[in-house]
Amino acid sequence: MRVPFGNVKSFAAAAVLVAAAAVVPAAAPAASASAAAGTPPQVYGAWQCSNDACTWATVRDMADFDQANHWLIDRGDGRPSVNLVVLSFVNPLTLLNGTTNSGNTNGVPVGMNQAVVNYFTSHGIRVMLSIGGITYTDDWNTALSQNPTLLGQKAAALASQLGVGMEIDYEQSAGPNTAGLQAFIDAYRAAHPYDASGADPTARLTIDVAAGDRWLIDLDQYATANWLTTSKPVLDYANAMVPSKQPSASGAESNWQEHLAGKSNYSPAIPPLAPAKFTGSLYIAEGSQVRPECTDFPSSVTSGTSAWTQGAAPAGAGTTTGMLGYMFWAAERPSTRGVTTTPPNSCEGGVGAGATALTVPVPMPPLRQN
């Protein structure tokens, strides 16, 4: 879960997740292989929130944007710190309605423009846009009830316009409109079919699920069973989002193991998810704290989980070892309160050093499919 604006609805959802995350296994299962023998991350990305708590409601001065975010394109030796940036967030209802106002043009935040996309792609970094976020959950529900097919078509047209992929961040914890979301995905895929090669950036379509299997349960079950299989993939992969606060290494591994194993005791059961079909997420800045994820890779949870994630074995789905990679929440200013990842808190020593230590490929290679 991510809390972009610090509003009442976000904190209420955070409280739900704190309760859901309170019961975790005492110890995470051991990794099936060492990091040396495991699979290096293929996805190593950051959600990007601009300077206004994820609204992107102003056009950025690109010199200022570079000063605030240079660490993303340069880990200190000229190589990018990440191979993916996800610009967060597009309001799904605003996109459906094609709203033009002070912060949007034809339904798209004015700050999510070609200049920002090119800033990253010119350095070999893939770009996606995230539709939703917890603040826009009600707007997802409204848009899916009104015209999910048109919403999917508009998302596909936006992907074509900017040359980007799309992420579904629909955080409806109970009774999500999966039929509407299916129609959205069908419409998007009609324009941009699944591309196993990864060559077409507009064909990249992903979804966010909870840190483990005990929140967003209905969405998790439906997505795992219908969209994230290795035999007939519809979405490229899922992101297991951050929990309410930075987990310990063992806590993170326990959450991610839930996706690997599924929940056979649920009705309907959540099937196992192939390691190659999801990433795990961690904070780089959280509240008033800059995490070691940003500044000190050797002491970070990323480092502490790296052997486990690279050696994570299939537990009922998939054939290859190792999770797909890591995502980090969030670059620049993810909330109106709290720290940012702008200088002096830029993240070359955390995310950037991790890219070197984990031999992250830039640009992103074709992703494992099984």
UniProtKB/TrEMBL annotation:
<dbReference type="InterPro" id="IPR017853">
    <property type="entry name" value="GH"/>
</dbReference>
<feature type="signal peptide">
    <location>
        <begin position="1"/>
        <end position="35"/>
    </location>
</feature>
<protein>
    <recommendedName>
        <fullName>Chitinase</fullName>
    </recommendedName>
</protein>
<feature type="region of interest" description="Disordered">
    <location>
        <begin position="336"/>
        <end position="370"/>
    </location>
</feature>
<keyword id="KW-0732">Signal</keyword>
